[in-house]
Predict the 3D structure of the following.
Amino acid sequence: MSKIFDLNNPVWTFVGRLVDVVVLHFLWFVCSLPIITFGASTAALHYALMKDVADEDPHYVKAFFRSFKLNFKPGIALGLIFLILGGLIGFSLYFYFVIAPPTTLYYMMRGASILMAVIYLFVFLYAFPLLARFDTPVPKLIRNAFFLSIRHIGWTISMLIILAAPYVVIIFTNFLPLLLFGYGLVVYLNSFILNHVFKPYIQAARGDEPEKDPDAWEIPEEELLENAGAGLQSVRESEAAAEAENAVNEAAAEAESTAEEATESTIEEARPENKEE
């Protein structure tokens, strides 16, 4: 019975994390109501949940407001950029899929709109976490977010699935209580991935010796040994070829020397005859 009420019990830990998600989701929603503060509140939500997931800061509410205050100005700029671009891309998708006639040109524009929407979501997934964890100017931050999304494409697709899953569940099952968690649940689940992806970059920013990139591809040891053996074999073949070439050159030089000696001998023999004549 005592284990049931133990706060370190995995069940209570899970419940506690859900409470954290609900509280932070509510704070994010309230702080985003002025619309222009959407960027700062989204960065603060990522900061607090990434810290909470990593057990780096138990005071997640304080962490939220600390990040909200620190990233207020760049958050407003970044939030407005995404709100404006999101509105334009959303209108483009609506126009070319609902209003526009089915012609070849409009089909091409539909494809371009889908591509822009995908790029928008890719950058969106990384931009606000980057704002929360790194001190970077907004233009460079957007560029870094794009390259990170491509560099870690597998994790990016995973986060896209997590982003869509709760809303798909709500649409098809009408499980409205999921709205209590909403975007907070998405950020909470994505925080595990973001902490994993950001770890070597955070260490490098702190001046620590960065760990090996967790997503970096490396040649298996067996292949390395095989390549090393092949390289050694090619070196040996080159050495053998060089030795054979040296032997041929020595033989040619020796033959040339013998020919010269024979010529000189013939000339010496011929000279007395010429004198007699």
Observations:
- Residues 10-206 form one domain.
